[in-house]
Design a protein that fits this description.
Blueprint: H1 2-14, H2 17-21, H3 26-36, H4 40-51, H5 53-70, E1 73-83, E2 89-98, E3 103-112, E4 116-123, E5 128-129, H6 130-137, H7 152-162, H8 166-178
Antiparallel strand pairs: 1-2, 2-3, 3-4, 4-5
């Protein structure tokens, strides 16, 4: 798990969305969203993402653009780590120290196939999970595009959440849910 955070930190430093996307199991993110909002569209998108690794990677790169652009992490500390008995799932609570001296507390869910990858995360200051944003966006016709590429409202929502701007994120989340 620590190796994933090392790769994430390197991706943040280089502002490399592709490298950050490699840390994510985007099909897993969509599956987590489908657990929250079991629409046929989300289930279909999750199956496509499992079958089409190139499309899933494109979706992941799109989804993490805001993360890479807005992150200013200097270091991280894993505060809590739990593994399931089979060693295929994990949960980690991490505190990122930022350039301005602030700290970002996040919770990550991991799946392991051949290697550990993030299948969901939550910025604990805003209490909004990546999968929850996708689940909400799935109710908006046309927002969930092939392999999870998102519409403008979803990208704005992601950027607001990542930037730690709950005041901007909440109205966007309501807008996406109502659409």
């Amino acid at each position: 798990i620590d190796a994933v955070f090392v790769r994430m930190k390197q991706a943040y430093d280089k502002k490399d969305a592709g490298a950050l996307a490699d840390c994510f199991d985007f099909a897993g993110v969509i599956e987590m969203a489908a657990d929250q909002n079991p629409t046929a569209e989300l289930k279909s998108t999750a199956r496509r993402a499992r079958r089409d690794s190139k499309g899933a990677k494109e979706g992941a790169v799109s989804a993490v653009q805001g993360l890479v652009r807005n992150a200013d992490h200097l270091s991280y500390e894993i505060r809590r780590l739990e593994l399931d008995a089979a060693g295929r799932q994990a949960l980690a609570v991490v505190v990122w120290k930022n350039e301005d001296g602030s700290r970002s507390k996040e919770r990550y869910w991991f799946l392991r196939d051949t290697e550990w990858k993030v299948c969901d995360y939550e910025e604990l200051d805003t209490s909004i999970r990546m999968s929850t944003m996708i689940a909400a966006a799935a109710d908006h016709p046309g927002v969930m595009q092939s392999a999870g590429n998102a519409g403008d409202d979803y990208q704005k929502l992601t950027a607001a959440v990542v930037a730690g701007e709950p005041g901007n994120a909440r109205p966007l989340l309501l807008k996406v849910r109502k659409s």
